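Exercise 7. Predict the joint structure of the components listed below.
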Amino acid sequence: MDFRLLKHFITLSDTLHFGRASELCHTSPSTLSRSLQQLENELATTLIERDNRHVSLTPQGMHFQRYARDTLDQWETIKRTLADEAAQLTGDISIYCSVTASYSFLYELLSDFRLQHPGIEFKLHTGDPANAMNRVLSGDDDMAITPRPRTPPPALAFKSLTRSSLVFIAPTSPAEWLPHTPESSTAQQWETVPMILSEAGLSREYADTWFRALGVTPRIYAQVAGHEAIVSMVGLGFGVGVVPKIVLDNSPLAESVKILHVKPELPYYDVGLCVLNRRLKRPRIQALWEAVSERRP
Amino acid sequence: MDFRLLKHFITLSDTLHFGRASELCHTSPSTLSRSLQQLENELATTLIERDNRHVSLTPQGMHFQRYARDTLDQWETIKRTLADEAAQLTGDISIYCSVTASYSFLYELLSDFRLQHPGIEFKLHTGDPANAMNRVLSGDDDMAITPRPRTPPPALAFKSLTRSSLVFIAPTSPAEWLPHTPESSTAQQWETVPMILSEAGLSREYADTWFRALGVTPRIYAQVAGHEAIVSMVGLGFGVGVVPKIVLDNSPLAESVKILHVKPELPYYDVGLCVLNRRLKRPRIQALWEAVSERRP
DNA sequence: GACGCCTATTGCGTAAAACGCTATATTTGC
DNA sequence: GCAAATATAGCGTTTTACGCAATAGGCGTC
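Solution:
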């Protein structure tokens, strides 16, 4: 069923005259006759009673006329609607990040963008930054805020937002296992410290590297998913943790812990936004990506 | 826009895979690809984001998917509806007849038919029987109950319902101009009688013929449209009228008038149903026509 | 009552378009 | 890095659609 058939039928049912209708449709009477035949075959119904001299609608024809008009109207409506939607970006963008990132970066990142593109909805998923890249690679989320790995997968595009340092944190309450001179680290003063580390992710890798350089196998008290939980456990006095400083700055438990200024310091790392290269073709993703580039000159 | 494009799009948006969708559509992947291109061209929008390895719906695609499903649903619905309507006759049948006919014939004519074809509505127009054939010939009404003329127009089909005689009627109240011996008519006793006749139609023609045979030019007191009004005027004592006996039999004023048994008697005539031959092709008209044939064995 | 006009329909030759096969480019997983 | 997967463009063939001209039938008119 082609919409041209509907147009032909409507014109015909308005004029009740094949010759005049064919002119209005910019076609020949024979084409119009065949259009109507095709329509009536598909519907297995007579829509227009006609002979060489008279043309009139059957009851079914009147009914079908309403259908045809509605259908063409709806077609015009969807065309206009889709054009409007294309002009104004719409759809969802899902972002995966840590709770900390949702506090610290996101507002700044999205506040302007939301005003500029009110048709776009954001779906925010928070969780352990260690999963961030996989969530993007698997397509579960469009974007993620994550520490930039040393060698990002080629399918991902990366954009730095800020740098942050990893820090050791200890409870402010006293504990006998606290290293006495964290500024000059010795192996033996760290061997008995109960450590609270990430299960995985860059902070864990950096911490492991740090201990290996010191020649120490740390006593791991707990492995935690999510940096925020590390702050909690350290604040409760369970041990010493390693977290990005930015997590500490945004933590409501910052008072319960203190930074241990160890030597050598843990490395800085980039925190940035990542996205699948191929999703950058999506207009709304591309728009956000570029908005991030142009932010804060 | 062809509905096949919509089907292709829906299958594609369900499977998100050109190969599998093409099998479901019983076509080739290249056809499917071109269907989608055509659709996107007509809509000037990207519906499906795709590369050699991934297929996904855009926001517009999701919106259009709803439209496409609705549209195909509506198409199936109208097909079913029209098929039902075709199985059960529907539409209007308009009938023109005199008030008398509407009392006397119509109930009998239509009562069974209405039960058998509840989808058909009747539009009843009453008026002077003299107009009946013209109403049908011009297409204003589908059918009419009318006296059968001596030579019916070739475009009309005719079917007798009953015979009726024309009668002279006079007021029951005395009047000096009343013919004293209607049974043996003489010219002079009729010349002064105030006659109340139809303006036109068969009853008028027959009356004229009757008077001409008698060699009398009647004194016409009033020319009336509609036999029922003749009974009224005669009942009020204005003169002598000529009406079909059946009108008298159905008149509430029958008590106010009496039949004059004139010699020679006015002729009988057929009262029947007429319809345009070409309208007999309409199923509902044909059904009624045949129901009339089979009525009352 | 025969003739001529009007008009929907059909036959047929041509034009267009749609289809499927194949090759290609590109991506992904091992 | 290689092989498998897959959407798409090119191209030859088939199918479909179009319009012209002829046909058939109804209707008004002389």
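Discussion. The mean pLDDT of chain B is 90.
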